[in-house]
Design a protein that fits this description.
The chain has 130 residues and is an alpha/beta fold. The protein has a single domain (16-118), classed as Rhodanese-like domain (Oxidized Rhodanese, domain 1, 3-Layer(aba) Sandwich), CATH 3.40.250.10. It contains six helices and five strands. GO terms for molecular function: thiosulfate-cyanide sulfurtransferase activity. It comes from Falsigemmobacter intermedius.
Length: 130
C-alpha cells in the first residue's frame, strides 16, 4: 500500500531534530545557522518574513541544494546548520528530512512561521513583486 502524508511525516519526525520558534530565534544570532523559509512567495507577501531568513521555495529545494544542479545556490554548500520553516511546520519537516538525506545539517522549526508570529518574534514585510 502507498504511504500517505502522515506516514511521511512520522518518518521525518523520527530522524529530524525540531526546534521551537524561541529556540530558532536564539539560533538566528549564530553565524553557523541559516534559517530557511520554504513558503511560497505569495505567503511571504501576505504574512511577512523572518528578518535575515533565506528564502528557498519548497519546489526548488532539491535543485538548490545539489551542487551538480544548474540551479544550485552557494549558501547550501556552506558548513552550516539549516533550520527550515514553513507556515505551520509540516512542509519544513519533510524538507529538513530531504536536506539531511542530501548531506546537510538540517533542523525543522515546529509550528513554523505561524508559531513564530504567535510568539511575538520579529517579522518584516515582504514587498510584492512587480
Amino acid at each position: 500500500m502507498a504511504k500517505g502524508y502522515k506516514d511521511l511525516l512520522a518518518e521525518a519526525e523520527a530522524v529530524v531534530t525540531s526546534v521551537t520558534p524561541a529556540e530558532a530565534a536564539a539560533l538566528r544570532e549564530d553565524p553557523g545557522v541559516v534559517l530557511v523559509d520554504i513558503r511560497d512567495p505569495r505567503e511571504l507577501e501576505r504574512e511577512g518574513v523572518i528578518p535575515g531568513a533565506f528564502h528557498a521555495p519548497r519546489g526548488m529545494l532539491e535543485f538548490w541544494i545539489d551542487p551538480e544542479s544548474p540551479y544550485h545556490k552557494p549558501v547550501f554548500a556552506e558548513e552550516k546548520t539549516f533550520v527550515f520553516f514553513c507556515a505551520g511546520g509540516l512542509r519544513s519537516l519533510l524538507a529538513a528530512k530531504v536536506a539531511q538525506e542530501m548531506g546537510l545539517k538540517a533542523r525543522s522549526m515546529r509550528e513554523g512561521f505561524g508559531g513564530w508570529k504567535a510568539a511575538g518574534l520579529p517579522i518584516a514585510e515582504k514587498a510584492a513583486r512587480g
